[in-house]
Amino acid sequence: MKLEISASLNYRLPEPVDLMLQVEAANGGGQRVQRASLDLGAPEYMARVPAAAGVCEPVWLRAEGALRAEYRATVAVERPHADLAALAEMPLHRLPAEAIPYLNESRYCPSNKFHAFVERRFGEFEGGAKIARMRDWIESRFTYVAGTSDVDTGALDSFVERRGVCRDYAHVMIALARAAHIPARMASVYALGVEPMDFHAVAEVYLAGDWRMVDATGMTRPDECARICAGRDAADIAFLTAYREIQLVEQKVTVERA
């Protein structure tokens, strides 16, 4: 499947600001970027630095007055829609080095607090079957409500309140998977079917020797997503991080079949 992607960001910068931008679709991992352009105007400073997860290349900027970013891309998604329940869990001692950090707690995913629940609710299942049950449990019991979470909301808050947006669903999915000793991370994606259309967040779990996308909102599928970047949780995958106050003027994301 090919996706036509566009993202337009317009922010007002009251003073000189350092920013990190992560909006470009990654090349590899089940997808190929066939065409792409990124127009950032004329910032005071711009540099690319490889991300820690090795999935993307964040753009560091320093700008004043305004940030106007226009991204366009055509991405061929070759990621199969795998049956999660049929995927095997890897023994911990056989995990590759890249997956090991994603067994641990992170800022928004205090997985150690979920061990008892995971054992009680999903203990009879293994590997992908366990992940599929977790995904279905979250989708059936949570309500997608915009504006009910903020930058301080973590997986435990969302678990208690049973509501949130895509990042909250993903945080709970990641926390449950890690509590079951299955590596899990968070990915930002461009995805078909997202309502309202915006940057989207999904979980990725390490099963059968590869990272598998899991969208607990049920809005999209792995073969309909183009990954942007990946990290421990929302702190690592924000499309825009500003190190001083900035003001949103307008933002628009569109994803269509090519």
UniProtKB/TrEMBL annotation:
Residues of the Transglutaminase-like domain: 158-218
Name of the protein in its database record: Transglutaminase-like protein
Taxonomic source organism: uncultured Sphingopyxis sp
